[in-house]
Specification:
Eight copies of one chain form a homooctamer.
Chain A: H1 3-14, H2 20-28, H3 36-48, E1 52-55, H4 61-73, E2 78-81, H5 85-94, E3 99-101, E4 106-109, E5 121-126, H6 132-144, E6 148-152, H7 160-165, H8 167-171, E7 173-180, H9 186-193, E8 198-202, H10 214-221, E9 228-230, H11 236-247
Parallel strand pairs in A: 1-2, 5-6, 5-7, 7-8, 8-9
Antiparallel strand pairs in A: 2-4, 3-4
Helix pairs in contact in A: 4-5, 6-11
Domain PurE (chains A, B, C, D, E, F, G, H): 120-249
InterPro entries (chains A, B, C, D, E, F, G, H): P2CMN_synthase_LarB, PurE_dom
GO biological process, one term (chains A, B, C, D, E, F, G, H): 'de novo' IMP biosynthetic process
Chain lengths: 250, 250, 250, 250, 250, 250, 250, 250
Amino acid sequence: MNSDSLKQLLEQVAAGSLEPEQAMQRLKKLPYEDLGFARVDHHRVLRRGFPEVIFGQGKTPEQITAISRALHAQGAAVLVTRVDRAKAETVLSEYPELAYHPDCACLSQLAAEPPRPGKGTVVVIAAGTSDLPVAQEAVLTAELMGSKVETVYDVGVSGLHRLASAAEVLMQASAYVVVAGMEGALPSVVAGLVDKPVVAVPTSVGYGTSFGGLAALLGMLNSCAPGLSVVNIDNGFGGGYLAGLIDHLG
Amino acid sequence: MNSDSLKQLLEQVAAGSLEPEQAMQRLKKLPYEDLGFARVDHHRVLRRGFPEVIFGQGKTPEQITAISRALHAQGAAVLVTRVDRAKAETVLSEYPELAYHPDCACLSQLAAEPPRPGKGTVVVIAAGTSDLPVAQEAVLTAELMGSKVETVYDVGVSGLHRLASAAEVLMQASAYVVVAGMEGALPSVVAGLVDKPVVAVPTSVGYGTSFGGLAALLGMLNSCAPGLSVVNIDNGFGGGYLAGLIDHLG
Amino acid sequence: MNSDSLKQLLEQVAAGSLEPEQAMQRLKKLPYEDLGFARVDHHRVLRRGFPEVIFGQGKTPEQITAISRALHAQGAAVLVTRVDRAKAETVLSEYPELAYHPDCACLSQLAAEPPRPGKGTVVVIAAGTSDLPVAQEAVLTAELMGSKVETVYDVGVSGLHRLASAAEVLMQASAYVVVAGMEGALPSVVAGLVDKPVVAVPTSVGYGTSFGGLAALLGMLNSCAPGLSVVNIDNGFGGGYLAGLIDHLG
Amino acid sequence: MNSDSLKQLLEQVAAGSLEPEQAMQRLKKLPYEDLGFARVDHHRVLRRGFPEVIFGQGKTPEQITAISRALHAQGAAVLVTRVDRAKAETVLSEYPELAYHPDCACLSQLAAEPPRPGKGTVVVIAAGTSDLPVAQEAVLTAELMGSKVETVYDVGVSGLHRLASAAEVLMQASAYVVVAGMEGALPSVVAGLVDKPVVAVPTSVGYGTSFGGLAALLGMLNSCAPGLSVVNIDNGFGGGYLAGLIDHLG
Amino acid sequence: MNSDSLKQLLEQVAAGSLEPEQAMQRLKKLPYEDLGFARVDHHRVLRRGFPEVIFGQGKTPEQITAISRALHAQGAAVLVTRVDRAKAETVLSEYPELAYHPDCACLSQLAAEPPRPGKGTVVVIAAGTSDLPVAQEAVLTAELMGSKVETVYDVGVSGLHRLASAAEVLMQASAYVVVAGMEGALPSVVAGLVDKPVVAVPTSVGYGTSFGGLAALLGMLNSCAPGLSVVNIDNGFGGGYLAGLIDHLG
Amino acid sequence: MNSDSLKQLLEQVAAGSLEPEQAMQRLKKLPYEDLGFARVDHHRVLRRGFPEVIFGQGKTPEQITAISRALHAQGAAVLVTRVDRAKAETVLSEYPELAYHPDCACLSQLAAEPPRPGKGTVVVIAAGTSDLPVAQEAVLTAELMGSKVETVYDVGVSGLHRLASAAEVLMQASAYVVVAGMEGALPSVVAGLVDKPVVAVPTSVGYGTSFGGLAALLGMLNSCAPGLSVVNIDNGFGGGYLAGLIDHLG
Amino acid sequence: MNSDSLKQLLEQVAAGSLEPEQAMQRLKKLPYEDLGFARVDHHRVLRRGFPEVIFGQGKTPEQITAISRALHAQGAAVLVTRVDRAKAETVLSEYPELAYHPDCACLSQLAAEPPRPGKGTVVVIAAGTSDLPVAQEAVLTAELMGSKVETVYDVGVSGLHRLASAAEVLMQASAYVVVAGMEGALPSVVAGLVDKPVVAVPTSVGYGTSFGGLAALLGMLNSCAPGLSVVNIDNGFGGGYLAGLIDHLG
Amino acid sequence: MNSDSLKQLLEQVAAGSLEPEQAMQRLKKLPYEDLGFARVDHHRVLRRGFPEVIFGQGKTPEQITAISRALHAQGAAVLVTRVDRAKAETVLSEYPELAYHPDCACLSQLAAEPPRPGKGTVVVIAAGTSDLPVAQEAVLTAELMGSKVETVYDVGVSGLHRLASAAEVLMQASAYVVVAGMEGALPSVVAGLVDKPVVAVPTSVGYGTSFGGLAALLGMLNSCAPGLSVVNIDNGFGGGYLAGLIDHLG
């Protein structure tokens, strides 16, 4: 479809030899118009108020404020990750509609239109207390998307009974986010017990050969339990977003 | 709960000082009984006929035959991956109910009870022809689970228009499996276009710094597109299973 | 064993058609009850006063105080690793029963009941002065478990004679903890000389290609001396605990 | 050679009952004279008949035969690892006293003097069927040392109940060897349940990001369960030897 | 731009309230139509007859034949890399218009229309004889694009004088492709001498710590000589294509 | 110094018009006499005023001032990278002719003679705001060389339309510098759209498995789009220099 | 302690001129008596006044002072590396006989007995100004050993003529220490030009894919120039010591 | 070619005893004329008959024959590494003056002129039988250079007494080549005992985490024993050459 054929098509419409409806059909089949569904999908995301994430680290308070305002104006929920308290306070003095969450160092704002509720419950499970900031980032993300979230925290080798005592909560899940550092075995254990998708989030918690989360990541990728997939190290947003997406299916 | 307290509880029941119903409630709250839901879930998996995968590489034809029969007897669909043609023929001579799929080197058998159909369509997208064996393993897995599967193959940088021309197929997806080697950029592109979960499967296709799929894996983990998660390199089964699981939600 | 069969069993006891003793035997054979030995073992650990370790790094003084108190109340010895002096002082102002060990940055408290003494001597050997904090963490751990500990420090290539001059001490060992950074060759040398288990602890001491302890770790894993095994880099607790465990066998 | 015997030798020289030349020859034959205890230990190992391992890969049948004969003549049990069947047959035609173990590709011969029995039971646990050759190498090693060995095989995420049903066996263990590839989570699970030393043996079983056993190794090193240590990838001999050593303590 | 606004625009054209020319301008500014230039560029590539590369490894002779025919029919030159002689002969029996180049294991066919000649000379320099297959792949690629190519081969540390004796050739270059394995220092040396772009191609030639070309790659990336950039290990096509592209500029 | 001039010099000696001593001095002043072309090229670079880069990190203000003055005196443009504001101010108090660019932490000075203008436009494209310092270093470099530079910034997955809207700018490019961190997919996308050389600059922007830019680097090296090459992580100077070099060809 | 002196000692005992007890004491003070040659070598080192290095990083001023005094008392030259100025000043206030070298952050003291002069000249060559601290550590080490040292600094790709102009110095070398970061190509270039041993010292100078000196290290190890060997990253002492050792041979 | 001989040549031209044309020819045969010292060194190498190594792997018998003949004609000893028996036989049928060494898979030929003898003895030490091919390559290289070589083989942890019993041999060494795989600790031990340069050669012998020799390499680089340097993995030639070079100093 070059300029000539495009002009020719429009001239046929102008000449009446081609109905607008027919022209539209032909245009929709063109290269690049062929990505049409993408745009529509994008609109759908905005309508639903799904959050757009802003990676706050390395951005100035002014940049954060400006991008947040722009996104919110487009109808999206806003989520800014990795904002320390000092930077957050500067942002809030300019843009007090944002809420600061010190437990995961995030700023957030709901979309103007309340999000469509999810179908079930997103269950966020964390292995240790050091994994909580990442887990809370997942919680906040899924809640901004409209999902109901339950948490089961501090479930290590010596705390597997917490999983058991949370059986009722676990049974209602539509998706799981399992956050763990060190050897990263918890998502395997969970995926062996349940029959809903498990999103594993490795964390950089650990020392020595944990290599900043690499050991946990490899443990999760090599899990022999099906139904488990992995996002980037410390990517709580990614885990929460995917679980929220699954929770809104159907 | 040691033997003594367990015996004491049973004696209270025997003595009539504790109702069976009450005793059962107390027993259900005990450590390890608390994993009850897991067993139930496991049964649910078997009832649905979801496949149990057998990693065929390194197993003898006799082992494959025996494990396959046992799994099928339990009501599960059977999937044996990484079986070369010679080994497959030996297995088939003993167990002709299995079907061999040379395009992904798998043996399979449906569960006795037909699987519950999925809710939508699992779309499996592959970047290059060399990625097809992994992609076909994903297709086979999801189909054994009862999902309807559509494929969009050979979608590299010079083939993005194939994605576009498949727009109608793509719009109906409940989940995507995107299979790619080399730099592994395709899942990022797909996840930027759609609003359903994308399961990325890196493949070991490539040379030089692809390092057996590591480059593709890192590319996928670092994607800035939300809604994307990753399974192990060449793990077509893992990708298909997760997509099938998502397709059966709700 | 689902709820129904459990209730049925209890009703048989209530009806007198099943003796409590028989019911107990049947319950003990059930799935998940079948992990019974684990619980007992766990109790055994507590009764012995073996320490539960708290990774102090990244925890607040309040968290450390609370977890320490809870563990001690359960009868365990308490060991908190990676606590700098400032944090330690805050904890001690609240919980003065803990002792601070500046040489390994640990807090500790013996169990209420004195630990059962070990069978022999745990010998902790360190290659250089920079390895001492890790070695002292091992010493403290084994002592909290009730083991007698001897140390042989500063045994590098130019100090192998210290090993020789410590021959009498070395002969009485039930287990060795050998702590080394750099090329990590010392555990191989020790394991070639002795006939008791050697637990090798690589440290992050070194520069350049030591890669934070990786060189030492690989050196230890590739040792051709049998009777040697390895724990994580800088994991003095892990080394001391395993040696203490071996020292309490029999 | 301790201080007493050194003094005695010098007194014999002083008394004229030993020529200086003879004394010098005796002193020169004591290779580890200054390390005294080491030589004694070495002798002790030989007296006990503990096996000396020969890494068979890359050695000719003639080399294997010669070294085996020499070791056996010294009173040691013989263990040759990584010998394929063809090479084994050539060796056996020359040295029929060796026994070939096709399940772990090893040749072995008991020491002339039967080994001193161990104190308890070495329990060897393997995650999957592909891990069996490594596990069997551990079994063979511990048995040559005189330990009683029990095995619990095929214990993956979907097979944890096998652990449970083996509770009685597990309770009698003096040491555990846990063999696993993939994500290597099994040793962590076992170490969380028991209170005896766990020797973890990662295997090169897996694909993709298992990186020839690296993922399993890292998983084991980063385990938060105390009482666990690790040997080299696929090092069944190392695992069995250490467990056998522990089983002979006290 | 959704379907409604597109239809509206076309109706305005039909109604005469909007000139076809104006409508075309508005359409050209739309999302995705806005990638128009890309399509044009792509056409430009085809018109020039620049080669499309087919990675031959892992493709059947039938696939290679089919794709080659299709590309040639579109006006592109054809280049199939990594084709061993046996496979090449099967392809040639079906498609004899292709030429086989055993020195770089490639099949090629010029575009129907002779390529536009380049502006200068592409100089391909190789460090050792083992690097020649990769270098020849670069030569073939640049020649298919219409560039004049000169080669300077076997220029290692002991052969730098070859560079000097080739000074006249080197002075005429518009771009350099420098191919080297081992420590990969040659591109740095060349880039320090010349003032035209240097495309460095690391090869997997070497042993030990060359790690399949990684050492060469890192050496090239860390070069302190400006004007040098790097393509993937063994990627002769990539090097030749980029040099050919530069040679056709202006 | 080619064969002719060498012969001429010797003939002058033979003819007595040049003293042997003088001839020797002239021969000794030609450091690269045998490499002839190199010296000439080097002079050519200086005549054009192409910048010499000074890596400012780890250098004192005095060193920076001295080297800058020396380079400028030789006729080169000056570019000092990685200079924080405090150090810059100290340098500027001594050498106020330098200009400080806080957006890329560089100091620069044009050559005395204005640089020869380039042939087209260097287009610098950056994926995210965090990539800007590296991108700006590329911009500054190319401008010092005399190239006209256009920038297209903030082009991530959700910003590909910015590429589209910049179509006119993109069409005039003689070379592209594409700067990206995270998964580093943007250069592949650009190279798939255009037909001029693309210099990819990976940045250390990202977290978790980005491994300080390694993921981006591997993504770029494994790109299946031809016409793309890579420089070191965060090496904006290298990218800008190469693009400027290409822009001055012909 | 060689065979002769051992025999002599025993003869003294036999002759009654030495008590057995005294002989035993003398024998026990010879740490490596059984390894004879080793002790002698060690003594030889001390006699020559070769320096013992103390890794100053992580040691207290008190520890540095104590170890330095002890070494000097034994007749060794003293070299303390990695001492920042503040720590150095504290040490010097206690032990003013040490000299501080701010260019390489070392403290040193000559042995009481002046060192035996070397045979030739140690030439230390450094690629860039950032490599100077490592190079100066090598210079200081070799000088303490008694070697004459010459330096050729700032020899990068654009400074190879410095090598040439230093030809006379280079010709007198008995050994070379070549210090380089980045791609580490300089030692290869030097080793290609000279016929004396070249000790390559990679430095952690660089950024991006230099990976803390790994790229330089790999470049040096993969050099195709014979006569070159490598020490650890930033190990100036190791390079200087080895060169000094070679310079004292014969 | 030093300044004197250059001046002399020019004076001959000035005196008419040498034609300019002849002088030019002589100057052109001096490849590194401008680097003066280098050429001389190179000639010295040839005069001494030091071997030029040919990496035989990947070269055809014809290439090996041709290069060997050319080198020998120049007066160098010839050494071809990595030649399997079949290839060797083809070469030998053409060039029977070469000798084949099956223990290290090398072909060699002495220089026409017998090499100048070394000053002492090169001692080559190997840890295990699997390291012998690499060790023998070192032996052959040093012998071709004229050095007297002694070997001490099979010196592992359980064989350190072999070192001791070889004390006399060790005392005469001018340089050591120590070859080891696995954890690579042997060179550290040797360097701790002796006072001559130790060239460490890591081998790819080992399994699991030996990572093809990487563990041994890191162990050697991180050795705290001074006087030790390292060459590439399996580079027996490199080790032997450097030791031979040292042995010829003075």
